[in-house]
Hints:
By secondary structure, the chain is mainly alpha-helical. The chain folds into two domains: 12-50, no CATH class; 55-110, no CATH class. 61% of the residues lie in helices and 0% in strands. The chain has helices at 3-6, 16-25, 33-43, 61-90, 97-108.
Amino acid sequence: xxxxxxxxxxxxxxxxxxxxxxxxxxxxxxxxxxxxxxxxxxxxxxxxxxxxxxxxxxxxxxxxxxxxxxxxxxxxxxxxxxxxxxxxxxxxxxxxxxxxxxxxxxxxxx
Length: 110
Protein backbone atom coordinates (compact mmCIF):
# COMPACT_ATOMS: atom_id res chain seq x y z
CA UNK A 1 0.00 0.00 0.00
CA UNK A 2 1.18 3.45 -0.83
CA UNK A 3 1.31 6.23 1.72
CA UNK A 4 -1.20 8.09 -0.46
CA UNK A 5 -3.74 5.28 -0.20
CA UNK A 6 -3.59 5.02 3.59
CA UNK A 7 -3.94 8.75 4.17
CA UNK A 8 -7.58 9.74 4.56
CA UNK A 9 -8.76 13.30 4.42
CA UNK A 10 -11.90 14.49 6.09
CA UNK A 11 -14.26 16.56 4.01
CA UNK A 12 -17.57 18.10 4.96
CA UNK A 13 -20.37 19.62 2.96
CA UNK A 14 -21.81 22.80 4.44
CA UNK A 15 -24.64 25.05 3.41
CA UNK A 16 -23.87 28.66 2.49
CA UNK A 17 -25.57 29.94 5.65
CA UNK A 18 -23.41 27.74 7.88
CA UNK A 19 -20.25 28.79 6.05
CA UNK A 20 -21.16 32.49 6.31
CA UNK A 21 -21.86 32.10 10.04
CA UNK A 22 -18.47 30.43 10.54
CA UNK A 23 -16.71 33.22 8.65
CA UNK A 24 -18.58 35.87 10.68
CA UNK A 25 -17.32 34.34 13.94
CA UNK A 26 -13.70 35.03 13.08
CA UNK A 27 -10.68 33.70 11.25
CA UNK A 28 -10.69 29.99 10.53
CA UNK A 29 -7.83 27.70 11.54
CA UNK A 30 -8.42 25.16 8.81
CA UNK A 31 -8.16 27.57 5.86
CA UNK A 32 -5.15 29.46 4.62
CA UNK A 33 -5.59 33.26 4.42
CA UNK A 34 -5.98 33.03 0.64
CA UNK A 35 -8.61 30.27 0.89
CA UNK A 36 -10.48 32.29 3.52
CA UNK A 37 -10.42 35.39 1.30
CA UNK A 38 -11.80 33.37 -1.62
CA UNK A 39 -14.57 31.92 0.56
CA UNK A 40 -15.51 35.40 1.82
CA UNK A 41 -15.67 36.71 -1.74
CA UNK A 42 -17.62 33.68 -2.97
CA UNK A 43 -20.17 33.77 -0.14
CA UNK A 44 -20.38 37.54 0.18
CA UNK A 45 -19.22 37.44 3.81
CA UNK A 46 -17.83 40.73 5.08
CA UNK A 47 -14.25 40.90 6.32
CA UNK A 48 -13.72 41.02 10.05
CA UNK A 49 -14.27 44.56 11.46
CA UNK A 50 -10.79 45.12 12.88
CA UNK A 51 -9.09 43.69 9.78
CA UNK A 52 -7.21 46.40 7.86
CA UNK A 53 -7.78 46.71 4.14
CA UNK A 54 -4.99 45.42 1.96
CA UNK A 55 -2.72 47.97 0.34
CA UNK A 56 -1.81 47.17 -3.25
CA UNK A 57 0.32 50.26 -3.94
CA UNK A 58 2.88 49.80 -1.16
CA UNK A 59 6.39 50.81 -2.07
CA UNK A 60 5.39 53.43 -4.64
CA UNK A 61 5.24 56.58 -2.54
CA UNK A 62 3.50 58.89 -5.04
CA UNK A 63 0.81 56.37 -5.86
CA UNK A 64 0.41 55.48 -2.19
CA UNK A 65 -0.07 59.16 -1.23
CA UNK A 66 -2.62 59.72 -4.01
CA UNK A 67 -4.53 56.61 -2.98
CA UNK A 68 -4.58 57.67 0.67
CA UNK A 69 -5.77 61.17 -0.31
CA UNK A 70 -8.58 59.67 -2.40
CA UNK A 71 -9.60 57.40 0.49
CA UNK A 72 -9.69 60.33 2.93
CA UNK A 73 -11.70 62.47 0.50
CA UNK A 74 -14.21 59.67 -0.10
CA UNK A 75 -14.55 59.09 3.65
CA UNK A 76 -15.16 62.79 4.31
CA UNK A 77 -17.78 62.98 1.55
CA UNK A 78 -19.54 59.89 2.89
CA UNK A 79 -19.52 61.28 6.43
CA UNK A 80 -20.92 64.60 5.18
CA UNK A 81 -23.61 62.68 3.29
CA UNK A 82 -24.58 60.77 6.44
CA UNK A 83 -24.68 63.94 8.54
CA UNK A 84 -26.89 65.61 5.93
CA UNK A 85 -29.34 62.69 6.05
CA UNK A 86 -29.39 62.77 9.86
CA UNK A 87 -30.16 66.49 9.88
CA UNK A 88 -33.13 65.93 7.59
CA UNK A 89 -34.48 63.14 9.81
CA UNK A 90 -34.17 65.16 13.04
CA UNK A 91 -36.86 67.69 12.06
CA UNK A 92 -40.22 65.94 12.48
CA UNK A 93 -43.26 67.58 10.89
CA UNK A 94 -45.29 69.60 13.39
CA UNK A 95 -49.06 69.49 13.39
CA UNK A 96 -50.66 72.73 12.28
CA UNK A 97 -54.18 73.75 13.27
CA UNK A 98 -54.53 75.96 10.20
CA UNK A 99 -53.49 73.16 7.87
CA UNK A 100 -55.93 70.75 9.54
CA UNK A 101 -58.70 73.32 9.16
CA UNK A 102 -57.98 73.81 5.44
CA UNK A 103 -57.91 70.04 4.82
CA UNK A 104 -61.23 69.55 6.62
CA UNK A 105 -62.80 72.37 4.60
CA UNK A 106 -61.55 70.87 1.33
CA UNK A 107 -62.94 67.45 2.25
CA UNK A 108 -66.39 68.94 2.95
CA UNK A 109 -66.57 70.62 -0.46
CA UNK A 110 -68.66 68.65 -2.97
